[in-house]
Amino acid sequence: MAENRYKVVFLPHDRVVEVAEGDTLIKAAMDAGVHINASCGGEGVCGKCRVIIETGEVEDGVNERLSAEDIEKGVRLACRARVKDDVVVRVPVESSISDKSALDIQRVPRRTAKIMQIDLEQLKEQGLFIPPVEKKFLELPPPDAGDNVPDVTRMVNVLRLKHDEHRLEFLLPVIRKIPDVIREQDFKVTVTMVRPVREDGKTQIVNVQAGDTTAMNYAIAVDIGTTTVYGELVDLVTGEVLARDGDFNAQISYGEDVITRIVQAEKPGGLKKLHDLVVGTINRIIGNLVKRSGVDTDDISTITLAGNTTMTQLFLEINPRYIRRSPYVPASTFYPPIRAADIDIDLDEHVIALVYPQISSYVGGDIVAGVMGSGMYRSDELTLFIDIGTNAEIVIGNKDWMVCAACSAGPAFEGGGITFGMRAAKGAIEDFSIDPVTFEPMIITHGNSRPVGICGSGLIIMVAMLFEAGVIDSNGKFNRELDTPRIRETDGVYEYVVVWKENTAIDRDIVLTEIDIDNLIRAKGAIYSGCMTLLDEVGLGIDQLDRIILSGGFGSYIDLEKAMIIGLLPEIDPEKVSFIGNGSLMGARMSALTNRIRRDVGQVVQKMTNFELSETSSYMDHYMAALFIPHTDLNLFPSVRDRMKARRKAAV
Amino acid sequence: MAENRYKVVFLPHDRVVEVAEGDTLIKAAMDAGVHINASCGGEGVCGKCRVIIETGEVEDGVNERLSAEDIEKGVRLACRARVKDDVVVRVPVESSISDKSALDIQRVPRRTAKIMQIDLEQLKEQGLFIPPVEKKFLELPPPDAGDNVPDVTRMVNVLRLKHDEHRLEFLLPVIRKIPDVIREQDFKVTVTMVRPVREDGKTQIVNVQAGDTTAMNYAIAVDIGTTTVYGELVDLVTGEVLARDGDFNAQISYGEDVITRIVQAEKPGGLKKLHDLVVGTINRIIGNLVKRSGVDTDDISTITLAGNTTMTQLFLEINPRYIRRSPYVPASTFYPPIRAADIDIDLDEHVIALVYPQISSYVGGDIVAGVMGSGMYRSDELTLFIDIGTNAEIVIGNKDWMVCAACSAGPAFEGGGITFGMRAAKGAIEDFSIDPVTFEPMIITHGNSRPVGICGSGLIIMVAMLFEAGVIDSNGKFNRELDTPRIRETDGVYEYVVVWKENTAIDRDIVLTEIDIDNLIRAKGAIYSGCMTLLDEVGLGIDQLDRIILSGGFGSYIDLEKAMIIGLLPEIDPEKVSFIGNGSLMGARMSALTNRIRRDVGQVVQKMTNFELSETSSYMDHYMAALFIPHTDLNLFPSVRDRMKARRKAAV
Description:
The structure is a homodimer of 652-residue chains.
Chain A: E1 5-11, E2 15-20, H1 25-32, E3 50-55, E4 58-59, H2 68-73, E5 75-77, E6 82-83, E7 87-90, H3 101-104, E8 114-115, H4 120-125, E9 133-139, H5 151-163, E10 168-170, H6 172-182, E11 188-194, E12 203-210, E13 218-224, E14 228-235, E15 241-248, H7 258-266, H8 270-293, E16 300-307, H9 309-315, E17 338-339, E18 352-355, H10 365-373, E19 383-387, E20 391-397, E21 402-408, E22 428-434, E23 441-445, E24 453-454, H11 456-468, E25 487-490, E26 493-499, E27 510-513, H12 514-537, E28 547-551, H13 560-565, E29 577-579, H14 583-593, H15 596-607, E30 608-611, H16 618-625, H17 638-651
Parallel strand pairs in A: 1-7, 8-29, 10-12, 13-16, 16-18, 19-28, 21-30, 22-24, 28-29
Antiparallel strand pairs in A: 1-2, 3-5, 3-7, 4-6, 9-11, 11-12, 13-14, 14-15, 17-18, 19-20, 20-21, 22-23, 25-26, 26-27
Helix pairs in contact in A: 7-8, 10-14, 12-16
């Protein structure tokens, strides 16, 4: 069922915004670009966000901060009041400290990328919905004295003559099953066939089942993340996902990042241990998927997996030591199909594991999976594919060519190196607006609870809004001349107080320092200059990009306009940005649905040129140029440039 | 060094024969067709085989049976005296009871088939000496900042550009080794490659070793026999066999024949048990081969195996129950290459096991191996390939077509069903001659020791000689009119006393009964009629055979002329008969030496037509016609026919 949406009119600004049922008025105001002082994250403790409901009804918004008289008059706390009707809301003077607010900041609703998913219908239309593992039902003529060819020959004959299947190879485990299984239901059997990568390759017969089981054919798709492992159980007949599960990668107790894991793997027994841990996690997830979906494991025909280079090597028990040592060499790009049981996966003997190939030590199978799953590799459009995390991986190209690189952005987007940085958990400030006159903030926290810190996406919004309001300059320095107690110098470092101590959950002022801003600028500069370097190397400009695909958990939270204001993403029509979520998992599922992926991925990997940015001479120049908000070259950000001009003009 | 050969002249017959140094005079006499009464098997106990050395010297031949005067005169016991010089020997009247002996029986030396072996030089000349597993030495450019492609890609690039190797597949175990191994000797490595069966298939890289190890590349070839398992360690660089070993198949404690093994395999846990037993035997043999040859197991690249259908299925742990049940269906003809470790073979992880395909339940991989190893499948000549045992397998054809069948000959050739039948062990009568006047026998036993019984090859000679001497007729019945105490009736059955009790090691008369002869006739009839049926089915006659290849242990002992006299083998120039010994082992070694075998065997198996004799209507007629000595149709045996005519004429 589609969610109900309602209109909210803010007076005296006369701003109209449409929001979902259940959204708070503070969120509606944030989206409408209407400033309301709101400092406590939405818990109703500060009582400053009073608004008056003129027409329509809201839910809640009443607490002990309001008198009976207030309530009678229609006063509500905007941070608690939830929309359930079209409403007209008046923002009183004391809530909207400056009535210029709404006029100055052309706040547009926080705008995240549109979601791109696997389109099964399209896949079917394009004839691509041909899984690498298929089942076929065979009716064999029973043997008699005049026809006693071997059982396998009997099957081969029917496959050849009645099903036009040639170049077949029967694996030993299935040969072992054949004599008894084919006699179970009067020589009526279903075979499971693994298609070759190349059309002239051999089709492997990996399983045989009595009777007709063609309606039951399943795959497991797995993303092996450094932090988290996700799995899906995919119905290969319908293409649908029947169950999903995720869990922390049990390797996490051996370090949070890939480098620490590699160090651990180099210790005696370490590689085996880390292999066992991640396989344990995968097996737990498989167990849950099987339980939830209720499928018979004998009908699970394949498992497809994608992970970054280190995760893939640890999973396959391949020493990753040279990944972290100059010149950073991974063991392999491609891995052959592997019997799942050979790598300790708890699936039946016949299950073949297909593992995504790698490009380089730091552009791994997760990125390749995203490129394949998103269909970028089949598109005419010049696409920037980007997965933002501690390491950001960038791929630029289209169906004809691709270049890629990994940039070390540092942990700023995950809250690392930021004084009050945190992950997007309860109490994380995830939205922010500022009154351009009073410089008072308006915040929304994750879970509408008392502020604890600032998450990556909140940080981007905060820096963008502070920049647009002239509170910080292009260098990320605070305007020392502004008249507000929120900007202050502590131990020689300028900072902005986002939330006063009494409104936080941590009994300390939550601040944003110039060091924090500098870290953010370095992080976004690394990514942007990575894109610039890649484009530069192929002789293109950033204005030639047709679209951006964001992958990874962080991408879903990014406010696109704000990311473009700070110069994290190239300025582009936000309509041309899409988000694929877990691209690695998407690619794993995609390769379970269409065997074409396995064929195409070989070409993609071969055609993709990897750049080691540290070895690319132009990178440092691009990086230095990107250490500004948004960039030293404002022509790359025309909208920001135009608004800055307008602001300077207004200030004159 | 070639063995020394000497001339022996027998007087008064004036017969000359050339024998090897160390041969006894009794053997020389047997070969010369000179009859000497010799009843004790050559132990010197009966003292009847006295001869006089006229010129030259012999070794031994003196015991307490001879007086000092005898010795002084040059008298020696022919069964003990060994040739070490050209000698002239006089046979006294008391030793040669009838001086007509030598004139009547045109005894020719026991003539076994010439030995056919793998001709390495020819194989090299024909460009066939290309093992399925090759090693190549690679010098990789070390990675640097400007060239940090993955290790496997680095190897692929060198293999492609410098060695023209394409379509490569790296298996996971070798990928695991690569990162460390290539760095061990400065990026100089040797790869082990398994060639594809089809030229357009993939070459698998299965091992990588530091430095140049191309000079060390070995294979193990194994014949999995029902009774005995034989192994060879083959040098794939020179083609030579470096070590040989054999042992009883440990399954033998679960029954001597394949049917009993199948019955055992059908019991709970039986299949696993039998698999473990034969693998245990193979592993012991491998251990011995490695120890004897002193090779490094890391340099053993492949193991090739051949066995009959039941042995192959038990080895691969495939339920053989349908082999022994009508309509006698084996699981498969072909088996894919299998990792040796997957079937519990004690060889390194990279070793691939290649298993010979089967034709039918009773024409197995051992026969296919013989056909391939002997080169029969590449020959223009119409060849009869035959492996005689309890089951005799017959293949007829040439490079264009082949037909095959298995016939149940029964155990007569292995001594089964024969009153005094035994295997070719110590004391087995293995050669026999008869005085056509006195009907006294002359025997030679295995090991020149006191007679214990009659082995299969001895039985054939005995029946042939008795037939030629007119002691038995075409029906295998004794001539009741002959005046000799050696033919007698016991409990209603006629028999011939081969050795009187006092000269045996068993304190009983060793006899040959009409029932024994009948069993032999049935056995040889089954085989001969099998050949006839196959030829009949393809519209050819037995006179069109160009040659015969004998395979199997029994074949080496067969006296070709005698086998043709009794009608076991078609009458053909003995020069055209060759013996390949253990054809199964020969084929296993051959497929280790030349990958062409693997390619060709597919076509051979597909083109070979298997006949179930019991389902072939003409078989019973052929069988009935073959239950005579040599056959009801004497025109099939012209030499025998002519001698019979001459004999009848002489008798008139």
